[in-house]
Amino acid sequence: MGLTVCSAPAWAQSDYSQPTAHAILIAEDEVVVSSQMSGRIINLPFDEGQHFKKGQVLAGFSCEILQAEEAVAVATVEGAKAELKNAQSLDKLNAAGALDLVLAETSVQRARAELEVARSRKRLCQIIAPYDGVVLSQDVRQFESVDASAPMMRIGRDAPLRVSIVAPAAWLTWLDRKTGLKFQLAGQAPAVEGKIDRIGASVDAASQTVKVEGILQGKDIKGLVPGQSGLVTFDSPAGQSQ
User: Fold this and answer.
1) Could you tell me what percentage of the chain is helix, strand and coil, using 3-state DSSP and rounding each to the nearest 5?
2) How many CA atoms lie within 13 A of 36 on its CB side?
3) What does the DSSP 8-state code read for residue 121?
4) How big is the chain by its Cα radius of gyration, in Å?
5) Which of 28, 60, 150, 219 is surrounded by the fewest CB atoms within 10 Å?
6) 39: β partners
């Protein structure tokens, strides 16, 4: 459902015809990127607020040891292949036993598996962007050393901003995934239009509220960023009592 918002349910009535609730802006697919290994950061190409493309490097680590391990694994594969070739030649001359040939073939398979392990470990040296997006915040700096699983940055998908709302459960009698809305920062205009597209599957028993998310579709979004809060006014059915 996205990022959890208000710690307690909060809503108000801007007038008696349209229900209004507090809301927080969130990014689509907002995630915290953590380090996959312990090491020193040598590449951190994107600052907060900068956009990136899918497949670009978000962070790079110093990996001389893992690079050396990969080189050793490559050499081991080449050595095993040479031994297999020699065993095959001897087998054609009936100068080697069947076991020698099987052992040589097994050595090649083992060496290739160890090479794949080394390459998999080396891939941890870079964190690759999973989608086109933007850096929302950073917790580390270039040349800093971090532990495995340490939070490094928060990113979000390049997509229209979303609003996250905690709404009264009673509104479920008319609220649906096509309900229109207008989001407005406190004391600022104009409002930005959007619509509801996600409604929580359950109601909080204690507060009798439900989590709701919407997507902003208006063009007046300059200056709006994730984390800002404001008011959302919903388009309610004609004649619906509030």
Assistant:
1) 25, 35, 40
2) 15
3) H
4) 28
5) 219
6) 146
Both tokens of 162, joined, read 């979303």
Return phi, psi of residue 128, to 5°: -100, 135
Tokens 């050793």 map to which residue?
A: 72
Q: Rounded CA gap, 182 and 185, in Å?
A: 10
CA distance linking residue 13 with residue 28, whole number of Å: 28
Q: Determine the Cα–Cα distance for residues 160 and 27; give it in Å rounded to an integer.
A: 8
| Token output for 102 | 């099987």
Two structure tokens written together for 161:
């901003």
Sign of CA dihedral 226, 231, 237, 242: positive
Global pTM reads 0.71
Asked whether 49 and 134 are in contact (CB, 8 A), the reply is: yes
Query: Quick check: helix, strand or coil at residue 92?
Result: helix
pLDDT, tens only, 61-120 = 999 999 999 999 999 999 999 999 998 888 788 877 788 889 999 999 999 999 999 999
Beta-sheet strands, E only, within 3-92: 11-13, 19-34, 39-43, 51-52, 57-61
**3-class SS of residue 28:** strand
DSSP three-state, residue 177:
coil
169 DSSP assignment? G
Residues 6+ positions from 126 with CB-CB distance below 8 Å: 43, 57, 59, 60, 61
The CA distance from 82 to 148, in Å, is 38
- What are the tokens at 77? 């594969």
